[in-house]
Amino acid sequence: MDRDAYRNCCSLVKIPRPSYEQFWSSHFVDYIDKDLSYSKFFKKYLLPNHPCMFSRRFTEDWKCRKQWVSEEGKPNFQKLLQEFDETPVPVANCNAKEYNANPKQVMPFKEFIHYWKEYIKNGHSSPKGCLYLKDWHMARDYPEHNVYSTPVFFSSDWLNEYWDTLEVDDYRFVYMGPKGSWTPFHADVFRSYSWSANICGRKKWLLYPPGQEEFLRDTHGNLPYDVTSAELRDRSLFPRSEEACQPLEIIQEAGEIIFVPSGWHHQVYNLEDTISINHNWLNGCNVDIMWQFLQSELSSVQKEIDEWRNTMDSWHQHCQVLQRLFSSHAFLKHAAAMNVIMKACSGINYAEFASFLKSLLNTGCLS
């Protein structure tokens, strides 16, 4: 961290996050094609929580941009099969809905590539639906490949540094999907930052600044699965949808990297056969947003199971377990409550958050 970034970091608590009104009116994000110091990125994008796009020059030296892409700019299936062949990978079905997401299955990589080639051959259609390889921990499974390097702007990554010490998980992913594959409306895990680089292909992003998602909730308080659905115009289902701003629409080209700030809900489409690399991450600029998110999630769980408060010991601890695992079969009979608990699942509880902060202290990140 250079001197300017350090000064900005020290004054972090004194800097309020500005309004997002500029995005509502201009629908414009900065496009970064020249050298940018970390301190300027820190001050202009991390602290104010503003999105931006980096040009392909920031990925041009990555091995995956050369090895995974054909001369025509398409996925190089032959090279990919040589590298990954029988590797089990998570694959989602974009034509199916399960708890406001797409259900997943695990299949051999070569089976997915066979499907993908047939899907292209059949005019981007298949009786199997539109399958999308997503959330694959390729970097963790194949650390020796070194097919890309994390740009310096995203290198202060407390989240993955913590999980690396536990050696059980990480939030670094590879996505591969045909034209037409997509990801439903959501905000990223723990309300973390994310960066996503297109190795080949093009994506369309629809982004809403933090707070706008509240206008998109239905009468039960649930967020939409698809923000482009005509049902959002039904005021009896989504009474406040007309109050929401229009989404920020961004087309991401091959080689470009998008920075998605904390708490920006988004929906993403692959406009072509696309391969991308994504990291979720957080640091001192947005750890407060993570903390607020955990408080909100626990409050939601407590509200939903309040009727059982007097029937169980250690009620607060049970709420945190449900918040993380939603696996207590005692509540399965109460479908509505379990649906909310599953929706509210954050993947971490207060004890784990405390462990996370302790780890940062021990490594000097919070000193």
Describe the fold and architecture.
This protein has helices at residues 3-10, 21-26, 38-46, 63-67, 77-84, 109-121, 138-141, 158-166, 287-304, 315-325, 335-344, 350-363, and strands at 30-32, 52-54, 88-93, 104-108, 131-136, 172-177, 182-186, 193-200, 203-208, 248-252, 257-260, 265-270, 274-281. With 367 residues, it is an alpha+beta fold. Helix 1 (3-10) runs parallel beside helix 3 and helix 9 (287-304) packs across helix 10 (315-325). The two termini are 14 Å apart. Residues 9-15 and 325-344 have low confidence and may be disordered. Belongs to the JMJD6 family.
Short summary:
This protein has 367 residues and is an alpha+beta fold.
Observed structural traits:
single chain; 367 residues; alpha+beta; Jelly Rolls; 2 domains; nine-stranded mixed β-sheet; four-stranded antiparallel β-sheet; globular; 2-oxoglutarate-dependent dioxygenase activity; metal ion binding; 2-oxoglutarate and iron-dependent oxygenase JMJD4; JmjC_dom; metal-binding
The H/E string reads: HHEHEHHEEHEHHEEEEEEEEHHHH
Q: Which radius of gyration do the C-alpha atoms yield?
A: 21 Å
- Look at the structure and name the CATH superfamily of the largest domain: Cupin
Mean pLDDT: 84
How many discrete domains?
2
User: Strand count, sense and closure of the main sheet?
Assistant: 9 strands, mixed
Head-to-tail CA distance between termini: 14 Å
Low-pLDDT segments, ≥5 res: 9-15, 325-344
